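[09:14] KT: can someone run the structure on this one? pasting the chain below
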Amino acid sequence: MPSDSYFFAQPHFLRIAGLNRLEVISLLDKADSYVEQSRRRQKTSDRLHGLTQINLFLEPSTRTQSSFEIAGKRLGLDVINMPIGSSSVSKGETLIDTAVTLNAMHPDLLVVRHGASGAAELLSQKVDCAVINAGDGTHEHPTQALLDALAIRRTLGDLDGLRIAICGDIAHSRVARSNVALLNLLNVEVRLCGPPTLLPSDADRWGA
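[09:31] RB: done, C-alpha cells below
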C-alpha cells in the first residue's frame, strides 16, 4: 500500500516529460490502492472534500470524461462538466477568454481535452489552478499512458525488461507518444508497428 505522504511535485500534469522513474512507480502504486477502493461497496471518500474540479472537454469524449468525473466524485470533489455543445468556445470565444471565466469560478483542478496541441499548456499559464491534460491534439495524453502502464503491470507484473509493440496509426496518436515516453522510464523496450505512412519519421527520437 503506498504511503499517503507521496507528493506530486509538479503544479500541473501536462506531459510525461518531467517525470522520473520513481515518480511514475509511486503514481502507479497510488493508483493500485484506488483500484481496490473502486471495487468496494462504499467507493467514495472525503479525501478531497470541498475542492472543485471542472472538466473542460472541447473535443468529443465519453470514456475519458466519464472516468475523470467518477474519479473526482469518488475522492470527494465537486465535479462540474462543461459540455462542448453549449460552451462559449464553440460560439467563437478564445481559449484565453475561457481561462478568464474559469478563474472567476475559482476551481482547484481543471481537466482539459482539446483538439489543438499545446492547448492544455496555454490554459495552465492563464488559470490559477492545477491543470491536467486529458489529451491535446496529437501531442500527449499522459493520464492514458499511466492507465495503460497500470493495466500492463497488474496483468504481467513488473514492466522492467519487457518488450512492448504499439501498433496502428502512431504518427497521429497522442496516446502512443505518451506511452513511449512513459514506458522508456520503466525500462521497457518499445517497438512501433504500422504502415510507413502512419509511423512518425522521427521515431528514433521518441525512444522506440
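[09:33] KT: thanks! The radius of gyration is 18 Å.
[09:34] RB: yep, looked fine to me
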